Amino acid sequence: MKRLFLKLVTILLFSQFASVPSWAASSLPGHNFSDVPANHWAHEAVSELASRGIVKGFPDGMFRPDLNVTREQFAVMIVLAAGLETSYSDTPKYRDVPPDYWAYPYIEAAKPYFSGYTSDSGSYFKPSSVAVREDVAAALVRAKGYADDEPNLALLEEKFVDRDQISPEAKKLVSIAVEKELIKGYPDHTFRGKGNVTRAEAAAAIYSAAFFKPNELAGIVASVNGEEITREKLDSDFEKARVALSEQGVTFDGADDQKQWQELERQTLQRIIELTLIKQAAKREGLFPSDEDIAAKVEEIKSSFGNEAQFQDALQQYGYTIEELADRACDEMVYENLYKKVTDNINIDEEDFQEHYDSVVSLDGQPISLNEARGNYILMIEQEKFNEYLEKLRSEAEIDIYLV
Asked: How far is CA 169 from the centre of its chain?
């Protein structure tokens, strides 16, 4: 029964129009940490970035906000937050960051914004060194596209008693960062340009840079023809996808897990967008199932289990309420109804079919009956027609995505 429920959940999560990723994560990144409570000054920033996989906690449930951030860690953060493409090159820029180094693709992607050091012996990044505040400020200014703005150097004179300790080459970008409120000073009127950056400070700086669009910060991740998709909906589907896939033994480990988290999130969002388009089309066509039909579908699912206790155990294992399962059942019925309408009265060209049949037989080398081949061919034509219909829905829709 467990396998039956898992199959149902997987079908309802990914449907026939989305491909299941070949990997999944082993656990969700924590959105809340015991040492960053709601009254912590960086709580909002840390929680938001953790929900996106930009920062992570430790296995004990702690974030450790006062630990210093290394240069390689900040490079990863800014690449993920800004949505930069990671890059590989046969000729690495920095002598101390070879291609097999875990953070190599992030450091290479960040180099236009978060630069290294040059000496007579070459360029170095010093990945394990602690990130300093003036470098972080400069990186944020470059990543936001403010580097060519006119600096207000008088602002440093007004605000910071230690302004002379900021590197001369960094003062311009630091002044822009302060004016844009990408980074702040301390209550004692110091900037501490060469001071270390803590994990909480780095999260706050990334968050202040507002790489995320305002709608998303308000809890909206996308809009389809004016219908909003919430962060809560995305997170819920994301977790259910993770559980379903991990139950199939699909997991991943290693340094690329943050990037893979984002890819799984994007795939989940695309599934929600396509399902929203399908449901909107079904409503226009009068193809939405009745409450009675949905209830009957849920009962059909329940009857596949030996008893009520087994059914409830399955719901709990896969993170479903009975209402959410009913919603999934409705989604599947909507899809089936629209699919049948769009693909009704398929006519096939016999010459095209015969050519297809001959090619399948010659390619596979396995015997296949004419009737079986015809059924497979009709299914292929139906799917092509429905995919064309979906593409038309997408091309005509007003879709706004607020994820980076």
From this structure: 36
Could you tell me which residues are beta bridge partners of residue 118?
123
* Domain boundaries defined on the chain: 2-20+227-401, 43-214
Residue 259 has pLDDT above 50, yes or no: yes
How far is residue 352's CA from residue 346's CA, in Å, rounded to a whole number?
A: 14
Q: What is the pTM of this model?
A: 0.52
The secondary element (H helix, E strand) that includes residue 294 is helix 291-303
The CA angle 141-103-135, to the nearest 5 degrees, is 25
Share of the chain above pLDDT 70, in %: 84
Topology of the domain comprising 2-20+227-401: Triger factor/SurA peptide-binding fold (1.10.4030)
- Report the distance separating Cα 315 and Cα 308, nearest Å: 11
| Strand, coil or helix: 306 | coil
Average pLDDT over residues 200-214: 83
Measured CA to CA, the distance from residue 319 to residue 301 in angstroms comes to: 16
Task: Give the neighbor-by-neighbor strand order of the sheet with 220-224.
Answer: 227-230, 220-224, 399-401
